[in-house]
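# nightly structure sweep
# worker-07 picked up a monomer target from the shared queue
# config: single-sequence mode, recycle default, output format = structure tokens
# input follows
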Amino acid sequence: MLLGIDVGGTHTDAVAVDESGILASCKVRTNHDNLLDSIEAALKGILAQVDRSQVAQLNLSTTLSTNAIVQNRIDDVGVIISSGPGIDPENFIPCKDFHSLSGSIDHRGTEIAPLDPAELSRAVKACRAAGLKSFAAVTKFSTRNPAHERQIKAALGQGAGGGADFVTLGNEITGRLNFPRRLATAYFNSAVWRTYNRFADAVAQCMTDLGLDVRVNILKADGGTMTLARSRSMPVQSIFSGPAASVMGIIALTRIHYDSVILDIGGTTTDIAIFAEGAPLVEHEGIEIGSHLTLVRALKVRSIGIGGDSAISLTQGVVRVGPNRLGPSAADGGDRPTLTDALNVAGASLYGDIARSRRVLTQFARPHGLDPEDLAAQAIKAAAAKIQAETRDFLAEINEKPVYTIHELLENRRIVPRKVYIMGGPAEAMKMPVFREFQLSTEVPPDFAVANAVGAALTRPTSDVELFADTEKGVVLIPKLKYEGKVGKGYDLEAATAEAKERLLTALYSQGVSMDAANVLVKEASSFNMVSGNRLAGKNIRVRCQVKPGVAFTLREA
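# output follows
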């Protein structure tokens, strides 16, 4: 039995599933001041309905890291970098405590100039004087040679009474090139580290208190999971895990064959995802956090401020819904009319206190010369029209660039949706309004109200590695795994690919995750001859492989 919990903007949903289907479900209000309270309440609600001895795993989708960044509840971070010649790091400063050192390593991992010990010492002293405890150390080609990043970390003195509580090294968080993106990724990882680890401590304690001794995984933005232990050093990967749960939920519940639009209409937002030939799209390079581009891989999703609790407003005779949420719907005891109240008054839903929905909507409508039914109809149409307009813009943006799915690059491919799938609490009530705006076949899958939690429960682990080999130097590196080895002159692309796959699977196995080799995709593989004088000196080899996102099993009909 697998448990899944999805922490949403309005509700926290939980399910227990096995291959026979959903065994239990639970929905509680999300307490944004204490997300753990919501998780604990949802978990207790589920465990009261099932035999806890049959639980094998808990997968958790959390908004914690996202909320921490949006609300600026993050640590001040000391960022110490070395870029060498070329790119000006001053163009990518993510924070005020930013120190750029001389020293450089080239693209083959050869040290061109050592770090200046005096510069490094001054940077460390400045950070300590500012009271900083979280740091990021990033050098341009650290993925080819991490020596300078390790030197910076040693100077900061993490652990053993040193001055740093945590240091993110750029080469360990990702093996991919792109120095500015790696810099931003490392910064955000350290910025949310403390907040996230307090949360992880509380989750672990909650599991102990409830007597639940099972593996806990955290959803990642790429549509996979990582173990709770692994997430402690990689909290940035948990950003945007909620939208990932949406996508994985629709995969688990519905068989999608065509280009399609996926709408997850929640209480606070609607998440829009696009599928090409039945596969979700991904942000190939990485997501943008604030104004900074990162190397955090993510499913391609757009979130807009339209949900069941989105407030209805009326300006100069025009009815709008969202983007603000000013409290719960009147049906849930609130004082402002919302989309949920409009759906109740229109007879499209029977949620909560329907009489209160009508009363509050009537009070809001009268000063504007409207009756509640007219206001409800206009609000529902406005919400569906906004969702359609945002989807249209999203598609236009997607079709301007190469299209990447979780499996492959679709060259010269234009996405033309043939169907819309809707999930989330208001899905059934919004089915016809959405159909009228999109003019496409529209489907609401079974168990639509808890689809996110189903997606969370069934999402399987993902991971990736990048291998670099230089046969002239006789070295092979897998930075993310902290692996360095020796290779001979005969080491080739085939051997490198086999080793990358094997070490990725071994790393997962060491975390308690057994993975079929068939689920490992080789995303990039290249080998370049290096010539010295008139002779072949060796090969420069690069392989990137990853476990493709997917679900453990599906709950859809064959």
